[in-house]
Design a protein that fits this description.
Largest sheet: 8 strands, mixed
Number of strands: 11
Strand order of the largest sheet: 1-2-9-6-11-5-4-3
Number of helices: 11
Number of domains: 1
CATH class: Mainly Beta
CATH superfamily: B-lactam Antibiotic, Isopenicillin N Synthase, Chain
Distance between the termini: 178 Å
Helix content: 40-55%
Shape: flat
Structural class: alpha+beta
CATH architecture: Sandwich
CATH topology: Jelly Rolls
Radius of gyration: 39 Å
Length: 346
């Protein structure tokens, strides 16, 4: 009975069936709805009010680096480029020379022989190989004194005549070209300054071959200042640096240190202490160092330390030059004097 009543109530409460389906009721608008009117108004307001202002950024500033000059311009004596070299030497204490005439094959051949020599000298104290590593690198040096007697003694005792002969040829091929460039630079500085030389030391130019071992993860960092290395590097007129692979060249100056890209296609020239003293402070000596990226293989570089003797020789050569016009005038004067004396004695 109770069950029947319950079913009856349910039948009465249910809506009568409709012959056609009716549309669903409209949804109630919610504030959180993505299509609500409030959201549309808020979106338009934010779009207008939250626009990022245009920022006026400074134009990219490229770091100034020492001047780079073609060797041919030095040989031809082009005044524009000579002036730029002098300006770079005054401002940075350094400049760069491209198209220097030392081929990549010459450098590769020298590297092969240098690796053999370092391998033999690895465990020997020769006096020609020095470990000059510091906290941030591991750097070794072979001092190549350009004197036949000293080199032959070294060769007989340590590396043997056969390897010495091959190594010597490769070193001298490169060293002779560096030395010729150094002689030319000596003439350029004397001619540009037009100044008499003071007291000059008679030390011989020395070629150093450096090996950089990349077993220290800090080898890319700038080297810390070292008075010993600073004095060793700057006690000459000029230094010519030639790396055998791409690297950075780091320069320490009295103002602030700076660095720039270097590689085997460019010689880096730095001013030494002798040139600073001779120029009465017009050029400031600097200390430079190669910074090589970490690698499993060792890196190599050359440095020719040019003594003031080269500068003195170049100066004496420039003083002997007499122009063609002067020679003609001198010839005319001698001819006139000859005819005068001939007339008087006749």
């Amino acid at each position: 009975m109770n069950m029947m009543r319950s079913q009856s109530s349910l039948n009465i409460a249910a809506p009568p069936p409709s012959p056609t389906p009716s549309a669903p009721p409209s949804p109630i608008p919610r504030a959180a709805g993505s299509r609500s009117a409030a959201n549309q108004i808020l979106a338009e307001f934010l779009e207008k009010s939250l626009q990022v202002p245009e920022l006026a950024l400074r134009e990219p500033h490229s770091q100034r680096v020492p001047e780079e000059i073609n060797l041919r311009s030095l040989v031809l004596g082009e005044n524009y480029w000579l002036d730029r070299v002098m300006k770079s030497a005054r401002e940075f204490g350094a400049f760069r020379i491209r198209c220097h005439g030392i081929s990549a094959e010459e450098l590769r051949a020298l590297v092969r022989e240098t690796e053999r020599v370092f391998g033999i000298l690895e465990e020997r104290d020769t006096g020609y190989r020095r470990d000059i590593g510091r906290r941030n690198d591991n750097k070794e040096e072979i001092v190549w004194v350009r004197s036949g007697k000293e080199r032959m003694e070294w060769a007989r005792e340590y590396i043997g005549p056969e390897l010495f002969r091959s190594f010597s040829e490769k070193v001298e091929d490169v060293a002779s070209k560096l030395d010729a460039i150094a002689q030319l630079l000596g003439q350029v500085f004397v001619q540009q300054l037009g100044r008499q030389l003071g007291k000059m030391c008679q030390e011989q130019s020395v070629l150093s071959i450096y090996r950089y071992n990349h077993n220290n993860i800090m080898s890319e960092q700038s080297p810390s200042p070292s008075e010993r290395h600073h004095n060793h590097s700057c006690n000459q007129v000029l230094s010519l640096h030639l790396p055998f692979r791409q690297c950075k060249y780091w320069v320490e100056t009295t103002q602030s240190p700076f660095s720039f890209n270097a590689g085997p296609d460019v010689i880096v020239v730095t001013v030494g202490k002798q040139l600073e003293e001779w120029s009465m402070g017009e050029f400031k000596s600097v200390y430079g160092e190669m910074i090589h990226p970490p690698d499993l293989k060792a890196s190599y570089s050359l440095e020719l330390k040019c003594s003031s003797l080269n500068l003195k020789q170049s100066f004496s050569k420039t003083q002997k030059k007499i122009s063609i016009v002067d020679q003609i005038l001198i010839g005319l004067v001698i001819g006139v004097l000859y005819h005068i004396f001939k007339f008087l004695w006749s």
